[in-house]
Amino acid sequence: MDPERRLFARFEEMGIASETVEHDATATVAESAHLAETMPGSRSKSLLLEDKDGTLTLVTAVGRTKVDLKKVGEAVGARGRLSFAKPEVMEEVLGVAPGHLTPFALINDRSLRIETFVIDEALFEADPIWAHPLRNTASTGVTGEDLKRFAELHAKAFIVIGLAQG
């Protein structure tokens, strides 16, 4: 079964209602800005971060948020400064290439290499929360509660914190 079909099968198993909207490829928040008019809710972005020991952290935040990496590092107990993981690591661990990263890629982390999944509390201010369904030519919306339920099942650990700088 292809990864996206496996994702939607898992949603069905978990009773997670979702809506998927097809669109042109969007690899960055700027490229997806025009979608806000037709997709109300919280549009997300995800970052895969690594500390000096190779510990991986997946972060999902509101698309327009400038994420405070120092705050994330303190919250997850990072050893040293966090940096962006290499594309090869993203593909190996989460099965997606840069521009396709999504919290739903946790379904591919079968060896639980992601130590902590960090969710921006601001995402829960509006439903649905939109993220790529493992490809950047669509967005899938789920409720905040369903995103938490998905994280409980697929993440080694997750926390919800405010991620905006300032």
From TrEMBL:
Record key words, sorted? Aminoacyl-tRNA synthetase, Ligase
Q: Which Pfam families match?
A: tRNA_edit
**A molecular function GO annotation:** aminoacyl-tRNA deacylase activity
Record flagged with keyword Ribosomal protein: no
What are the residue boundaries of the YbaK/aminoacyl-tRNA synthetase-associated domain, all occurrences included?
A: 23-150
| Signal peptide from the UniProt entry | none
Domain of life assignment: Bacteria
Coiled-coil spans are none
Task: Return the InterPro entries for the record.
Answer: ProX/PRXD1, YbaK/aa-tRNA-synt-asso_dom_sf, YbaK/aa-tRNA-synth-assoc-dom
Describe the family membership recorded for this protein in Swiss-Prot or TrEMBL: Belongs to the PRORSD1 family.
Task: State the name under which the record lists this protein.
Answer: Prolyl-tRNA synthetase associated domain-containing protein
Which organism was this protein described from? Parvularcula mediterranea
Q: What is the lineage of its organism?
A: Bacteria, Pseudomonadati, Pseudomonadota, Alphaproteobacteria, Parvularculales
